[in-house]
Amino acid sequence: MSDFPEAVFADVLQANAGYVHRFEDSNLTGVAARELAIITCMDSRISPLDIVGMKPGDVKILRNAGARVTEDVLRTLVLATYLLNVKRVLVMPHTECKMASGTEPQIHAEIQSSYGVDTRSVEFRTVADQQAALQTDIDRIRAFPLLPAELAVGGAIYNVHTGELEPHRG
Fold first, then answer.
1. Are 142 and 74 in contact (CB under 8 A)?
2. Are 160 and 46 in contact (CB under 8 A)?
């Protein structure tokens, strides 16, 4: 007996069947051919490869709410730099991010009032000032002792309405 709820994921499985029919093995190796990792938000308006003019196999993409540099992102960057050819990192938050729309207590209160779930045990890492948060995240990567000193790190805010990247000048 399977624990996979097939009826709930029927559309996903049907779409995958079409994908399998069209699929051609790219023979990619799994390393970042363009030596780049992008840390961005989980927002579905963001298509990281398109934004930077690259294709599958070129970039390692790390996504989470708010494009924040968390402990898991740092862990993943250690693996990406030593094992997957990453030599540069772009931290890329975006305009109109839900994590930049309220304070930590406000987000917790919104979930509590709408769904009755107390989420205060989770740190969402909301962002009051996107430029300041971006600088903090860049600094976290640069200061992390397990990452190569020569790792190039930059940041840019993606505008969801124009498609433009605004480089962070620090």
1. no
2. yes
Q: What CATH number is given to the structural domain containing 142? A: 3.40.1050.10
Instruction: Please give the Cα distance from 113 to 47 (Å, whole number).
Output: 32
- Extract the tokens encoding 74: 């740092």
pTM to 2 decimal places: 0.93
Nearest C-alpha neighbor of 141 from the set 103, 168, 161: 168
Is residue 18 domain-resident?
Answer: no
- Tally of domains in the chain: 1
**What's the CA gap between 79 and 73, in Å, rounded?**
10
Q: Let me know if residue 48 belongs to a domain.
A: yes
Mean pLDDT by 10 residues, the chain (170 residues): 88 96 93 98 97 97 98 98 98 96 94 97 94 97 98 98 95
Name the β-bridge partners of 89.
37, 153
Distance CA 48, CA 91 (A): 11
Tell me the CA distances in angstroms from 106 to 41, 66, 68, 96, 131, one per residue in order: 20, 16, 18, 16, 21
Structural domain harbouring 56: 28-167
